[in-house]
Specification:
Elements (H helix, E strand, L loop, with lengths): L22 H14 L12 H8 L3 H13 L3 E4 L3 E4 L5 H12 L12 H7 L28 H19 L9 H15 L8 E4 L2 H12 L5 E6 L3 H9 L3 E8 L2 E7 L8 E4 L13 H14 L2 E5 L24 E6 L11 E4 L5 H12 L4 H12 L2 H28 L3 E2 L8 E6 L5 H10 L5 E2 L14 E5 L5 H23 L7
Helix pairs in contact: 1-3, 2-3, 5-9, 6-12, 7-12, 8-9, 8-11, 13-15, 14-15
Length: 511
Amino acid sequence: MVKQAPAAPFASIPLDETSPVPLYYQVYQRLRAAILLGQLAPGARLPSTRQMAADLGVSRNTLMSAFDQLIAEGYVEGRVGAGSFVSPTLPEELLEARLKAKREVPAQLVPRSLSRRGQVLAGNPITLSDRPPGNVRPFVPGIPALKEFPMDLWSRLVARRWRDESRGLLNYGPAAGQRPLREALAAYLGPARGVVCEADQIVIVSGTQQAVDLVARVLLDPGDSVLIEEYIYTAARSALVGAGLRLIPVKVDEAGFDIANPSADATAARLAYVTPSHQYPLGVTMSLARRLALLDWSNRNGAWILEDDYDSEYRYATRPLAALQGLDKAGRVIYVGTFSKVLFPSLRIGYIVAPPDLVKAFSIARGSLSWCTPNIDQAVLADFINEGHFTRHIRRMRSLYAERQEALIEALKRELGDLFKVRRTDAGIHIKALLLEDLDDRAIADEAYGLGIFAQALSRFYEGNPALAQRGLVLGYGAYNPRELKEGVIKLAKALHTVRRQSRSPANRRS
């Protein structure tokens, strides 16, 4: 027999002992309203009268009178030996009362007007679709091979940490992050990414999104200008716009971010946000000449550079390129990395490598916003890095992702070679597929979603005039084996051909 979940306490019910309305009737009214408004779902178990009386500080007789009234009217039913439950089915008149109650929500429950910042945040979701992908279906970008993660090993490291120092891990940790993890990162980033730093320059955050938000809060004021890549990673865009900043798009071509070609005056900008090692979503790498030009711009204008190095560990043609931060001699580059793409997204650990004079400000601000990342996760990650598991995992995944990229490209060429231009990329776990015909990539993405495929329209990443955006799809392949990729491409081809036929119908032809 399935054991019933314990009922939640109702200590939050407001009661007025000075009111002429009896206390039992006040309880009855509150519970009835909660049922009609759907706050108590059909079949939900209610607390016992003894428990609720203790929670509310009233006599048990008061609660029994309220329950008797609810049972008599059909809102609640009692089950011998089990307790009291919201009626699983309500009579028609009660259903009509529920609809009426929802229409007559008290004024204090109606959402208030948002602040200007709140309106901006609510109007800039971090995803490009209001329909979350749910299960990890092809071709969600940015998701690593979760099935290949060494979960047994990770579990042993977690168990060891809890066993050896569980009490210490239960307390608050330093706002800047646990020292062992910061030291492990400093030792890794130097040889692996060419980052020049010490452990004291690292601040642990909850992913790239928080890093961008923290940098914007500490270094910029609302109304300041920021140079961004055209096309731009939407989560970073949301953080920058949410901070009240003015975005200035800068062209990205095969050589990467071109500081000589912004859409507006770049001298007024106080920061440039870039993904130089593997631009998202176009996948290009910023050339050395462009990197030096960007550093020169920052020095001449006293501006900052925010370098987002989100997945450069996965480079297939050559070893990972050295970070832009390693070329910086003036302390103008703030380097950001994350473990979401290389381990698993729910780990929610990222980091900022800051110039020494900014570390204290970032650490204090980090503590003010959310204090610290969970200690246990930091401790286990430090062990994972220090014991060599991280570098072994990266090497194994690099080979796996190269195979998966090849499988995806072969499937695209076989099924859609006449409609897509696609080529191999040197890094990352996604590719872009450019349309060779004048088709609506957003319509294709919508049609594909109906078939169980999550493909993002490239034009949605474009900040400027939509008419000037390239048309194509951003396709992630990290989380999918070759069979899943091939099956996904077949469904994608079906979606694309449907949109193609619709675009050619007489009703949709352009005059």
